[in-house]
Amino acid sequence: MKAKNSLLIATALVFSIHSLAQQPTYKIQSVAIQTRWAKEVSPANALKEYPRPQLVRSNWTNLNGLWNYAITSKDAGKPASFKGQILVPYPLESALSGVKKVLLPTQNLWYKRTFVKPVATTGEKVVVNFGAVDYLATVYVNGKEVGSHEGGYTEFSFDITSALRDGENEIVVKVLDPSDQGVGPHGKQVLNPANIYYTPSSGIWQTIWMEVVPGDAISSLTITPDIDKGVVNVTVNSAASSPVSLFVEGKTITGKSNSPIAVPLADAKLWSPGNPYLYQFTATLGSDKVSSYFGMRKISVAKDAAGVDRIMLNNKPYYNLGTLDQGFWPDGLYTAPTDEALAFDIKAIKAMGFNTIRKHIKVEPARWYYHADRLGMLVWQDMVNPNQGLPEGSKAAFEKGSAEILKQLHNYPSITTWVLFNEKWGQYDQERLTKWIKTTDTSRIVNGHSGEYLYVNEQLRSPSPDAYINADITDVHSYPDPMNSIRMDGKARICGEFGGIGVFIPNHQWLTGSAWGYIQEKPAALIAKYSIMNQHLQLFKKEGLSGSIYTQPFDVEGEQNGLMTYDREVIKVPFADLRKIHSTLNPDLASPNWLSMVKDVTAMDADLTEPAQLYSNLFQQYIAGKKDAQFLKQLAMMATQAGDKTGEARIGREYIATMKTPLSDDDVNSVVQFTKSSKDAGFALMVKQADQFKKVLGDRKYTVAMMNMIYKGDMESMIQQKKSWDEIGAIVKTYGAPGEEMLLRAKTIDFYNTQNWEGYVTVAKSYLEKYGANLNENEKSMFQKAIDDHQ
């Protein structure tokens, strides 16, 4: 997806964190909206399910729960004291972590807890497993470094046996996460979230657990079905070659580890979204026994009876009717509150009538793919794109991470398609990397480039004739209306993204001041617009289209273009209506199993009343004298959405006037939301109670908010009136550091845009010297290059 250009004034202003606070007991931090599952989260039940359903052992210890944490400078050693507690495995920035702080690229996040040494006999090993830690994790047990792992999306394990002592032991995890400022893949996470980019998820964000395993243990399984031959090939991987046995369908098959074992299946039950049948089996190597499962399915591209290249499921044409799932949560960010919540997303998408999910530049926990397997959902799995600027080291980090993804996710029958690149996000070596994926995994098809052909309002933005080399698919992105992709012999045609219809639902928004989408519609108009889009898909299908991906199933932060709200509470088009719209495209929707698998999915239907009318009705109550604080807050939010700027300013002032000190965290956030300029009532409050605002927002976010208010309230009109910079400076410098930084930034940008190089060099040098640390590398390089070229 492509974002609209942001205003230069607000670009690249990076948040920092406030000081550590003592947290004697766990409490979810305040958040604009939260899901129904958040109330179920506690230190005693934080994601307690066994986290690896395809390699299950009985002897394990869950290490989720409260850990001590500390934040230090990047170069500092282990802190002398840990002053707070964090609920693992929820990311540092999430409300469910109990912390909700931003980790800067210049800082380390430290975790610490104790555990009792598991009972292990002679020759057995104790292994600690991590689902995922973002980004660079170093693990210490009793002060001894036992290993490190780079990459925020894949699992890793360390043998900690030699570091253990009898009784109580200490484990410490050090984490560095530069987010979008580093060389590694970071997906949609950025330090300055806006539009289609979201809040980072730093640190431990998937389950940590320990296992006691034999000295010669099963390290992993490699499972590849072959329906044409009626077998499933299973490789039991271990450090040494050893005898192994598989118990499948009441039969025992023997072989050697590290070599494929062909397991025959007479009249195999084929896996599909309409009938997601899973075979259960166990694998045994010596005293190590694990349970697992597999599904018999085949994915391919072949010609149909009319000679058209189509995506085939189990050797039959199968239209991939999909949606673009980001995998973000308002309360847990990258981490779903509970396992039930994790499964709900797939059930809800199935209840909408989709049979495919494109998992967008994120790798989910293993249990998400297990739920996709058991519920029946095709998955297009994106690689997590490299840093788009391709700094030195980014290509190596991307290829290492992608290799780990291919290995880690190989066994899931739901995954049918690998997506290498999204649009032009860090694209390089297209031909080589597409071929590498196809060679690494011959059992799936490869979408080498999703959306290299990108249309917005039917205008082509980025043509590239070599985009689909070595791929099985040609793929176009088209916003808002779908299009058919180009025809190439031997390749299926896909519309890899379309839609993005922004519809806001009052009281169910992460950001109430915006409803980002490629187009905006009222709730009542969404069903008609969406129906017409799907009618065009029907025509495209007749002309050769094999699949489509709608953006998107759920709102995400500032994007309000989901079919459901971000809190998963409101469905904007009823489930039954969506299934009716999709019935001509989804081959399995008539299956008797379909509704039975999603019968427990619930959500409120959207109120189709015109939002401005809702606001007008409440506004009349305000005129009649209703002025309680909660009502004023809701009315001010709705005024923003209805476009009543005069009403928003008036009601926002009155709401702020109801606040009493000390301000709550929610009060602070509301003041910032309803304060747009230095002329607004909330600005004086932010100046007067700066320490309280910095405590809640963080120093940097507070400064950024002040800068934008100063620009809006004082500088914008003076610039339009062509006042001199001396006159402007005399006003804004009275606001202290935020005013000085905003003045230098505005002058630098103005001189750059007007090519006033004589004035630019001096001002830009001063800006970079004083505030360059707040800029992203691309902007800093742009300003520095202009200095070098003209001094």
Which helices and strands, and how do they pair?
Layout: E1 60-62, E2 65-73, E3 84-88, E4 107-116, E5 125-130, E6 133-134, E7 136-141, E8 144-150, E9 156-159, E10 168-176, E11 203-204, E12 208-213, E13 218-226, E14 231-238, E15 243-248, E16 251-256, E17 261-264, E18 279-285, E19 288-294, E20 299-303, E21 309-313, E22 316-317, E23 320-325, H1 339-351, E24 356-359, H2 366-375, E25 378-382, H3 394-408, E26 415-422, H4 430-440, E27 445-450, E28 453-456, E29 459-460, E30 473-479, E31 492-499, E32 501-502, E33 519-520, H5 523-542, E34 545-551, E35 570-571, H6 575-582, H7 592-596, E36 604-605, H8 611-623, H9 629-642, H10 645-657, H11 665-674, H12 681-688, H13 690-697, H14 699-720, H15 725-732, H16 737-754, H17 757-771, H18 777-790
Parallel strand pairs: 23-24, 23-34, 24-25, 25-26, 26-27, 28-30, 30-31, 31-34, 32-33, 35-36
Antiparallel strand pairs: 1-12, 2-3, 2-4, 4-10, 5-9, 5-12, 6-11, 7-8, 7-10, 13-14, 14-17, 15-16, 15-18, 18-19, 20-21, 21-22, 28-29
Helix pairs in contact: 1-2, 5-6, 8-9, 9-10, 10-11, 13-14, 14-15, 14-16, 15-16, 16-17, 17-18
Task: Explain what this protein looks like in three dimensions.
The chain is an alpha/beta fold and 791 residues long. The chain is 28% helix and 24% strand. The strands form nine sheets. Strands 27-26-25-24-23-34-31-30-28-29 form a ten-stranded mixed sheet. Strands 3-2-4-10-7-8 form a six-stranded antiparallel sheet, with no helix packed on it. A four-stranded antiparallel sheet has the order 1-12-5-9, with no helix packed on it. The chain starts with 59 loop residues before the first strand and ends with a helix.
